[in-house]
Amino acid sequence: MSEIPCSGDVRASKVLAERGEESDEDLPPTPLMSAILAQDHTLLISLLQSGASPNEGPRGWYGRTPLQAAALLSPLSPQILRTLLSRSADPNAPGGNNGGRTALTLAAGAGNREAMEILLEAGANVNLPPARYMGRTPLQAACEGGDTFIVRILLNRGGDVNAPPAHNLGRSALAAAAENGHGEIVESLLSLGAVVNAPISRANGITALQGAARFGDLAIVEMLLQAGVDVNAEASHTFGTTALRAAAEKGHVEVLKRLLEAGADVHVTSGARGLTALQAANINGREDVIAALMHFSAASSSNPSSSYLVDFVLVLHLHLDRVEAGGMYSDPQCELQ
Question: Are 226 and 311 in contact (CB under 8 A)?
Answer without folding.
Answer: no
